[in-house]
Design a protein that fits this description.
The chain has helices spanning about 5-25, 40-50, 70-80, 95-100, 140-155, 170-180, 200-210, 220-225, 225-235, 245-250, 260-275, 300-305, 310-315; strands at about 30-35, 60-65, 85-90, 110-115, 130-135, 160-165, 190-195, 215, 240-245, 255-260, 290-295, 320. The protein is α/β, with parallel strands linked by helices and about 325 residues long.
């Protein structure tokens, strides 16, 4: 073998491992961004896994924490968009608005928002347009229905208060619905605001002064991130409360009426799957709740001196004892 042939042989041997590595290089897996990841996201992750998206193998999750704070939400969404991720999933209106504000190209799947049209997230429910789709808890009869259930469960109630966040547009919609419905049910209505976690102590002091017969609590992300503190205060004061999701009742709240959140997160996983497979968000209609559930906690009721009638227990989808 002459010198030229030896050099060619060595060059080929050196190139071969690189060629083999190129052939074995794993394909790119999609990256999915989640703002304020937590236990509530488990149905979403489980549904994706059931569809073949296994964390670390066929999908990579990127998470950022904002605790519902408006400024941190924007920063968290911006970080995810700049990575970039292939899709951002957001729970609630504030997080969804923050994501839309920082990107018009990365697809966004919104989960359990209020009024996505009024909030400027989509053009319409049937034809979202843009880069956002998902589901909404929107239902014009939902807030009045909660008040009707309050009167059925607490017939003597005459004063109701809403704990709300003025920075959450959807909370404003709920506020107006309750304010309109309350007089027809013989209820005086007031609202107590808490924009941040630091505002809660002041809100609690206002509720002690007002002493309503029942408090209505929303799914606002700021409030939900501190839900144990809210439930603890209500329990200590012996204040009955109506929540919007089952998990709050399981955590010690008295009652809840609203859409099934696990189902909404599972539905969001379907949207994510379709988008990752190439479907444009603009062509995927926003979905509304198909089923609502009433959940009551008898242990909490007994502790604060509230009697839940047998009729209500039979009507409830779940009774926690």
């Amino acid at each position: 073998m002459n010198r030229r042939e030896l050099i060619a042989l060595l060059a080929g041997a050196a190139a071969a491992p690189g060629a083999a590595r190129a052939q074995q290089r794993p394909r790119k897996i999609p990256r999915l961004g989640i703002v304020d990841d937590g236990a509530i996201w488990k149905p979403f992750r489980d549904a994706l896994r059931d569809a073949g998206y296994v964390d670390g193998q066929t999908i990579a999750f990127e998470t950022r924490v904002a605790d519902g704070d408006p400024e941190r939400l924007t920063a968290a969404a911006a970080e995810l968009a700049q990575l970039p991720v292939d899709l951002i999933a957001t729970y609630g209106t504030p997080a969804s608005r923050a994501a839309k504000a920082v990107t018009s190209t990365v697809p966004i799947v919104m989960i359990a928002v209020g009024d996505p049209v009024a909030d400027g997230l989509v053009q319409s429910l049937a034809r979202p347009g843009g880069n956002v789709t998902g589901n909404t808890i929107l239902s014009p009869e939902l807030a009045p229905k909660r008040l009707q259930l309050v009167k059925a469960i607490l017939p003597s109630a005459s004063r109701a208060a809403l704990l709300w966040n003025p920075d959450n547009v959807s909370n404003g919609v709920i506020l107006e619905q309750l304010r309109t419905a309350a007089p027809g049910l013989g209820l005086q209505f007031t609202a107590v605001e808490a924009r941040t976690g630091n505002d809660l102590d002041g809100a609690f002091a206002a509720l002690v002064r007002e002493r309503p017969d029942v408090v209505l609590v929303t799914n606002d992300a700021v409030h939900q991130s501190r839900i144990h503190k809210i439930i603890g205060f209500l329990f200590q004061q012996g204040l009955p409360a109506m929540f919007q999701n089952r998990d709050n009742v399981a955590a010690g709240g008295l009652m809840a009426y609203g859409a099934s959140f696990p189902e909404m997160f599972q539905q969001a996983a379907f949207f994510a799957q379709k988008i990752l497979q190439g479907a444009p968000p603009a062509d995927l209609p926003v979905q509304t709740p198909q089923r609502f559930q009433l959940v009551v906690n008898l242990k909490t009721a007994k502790a604060i001196g509230v009697t839940i009638s047998e009729a209500i227990q039979l009507q409830a989808d779940e009774v926690i004892e």
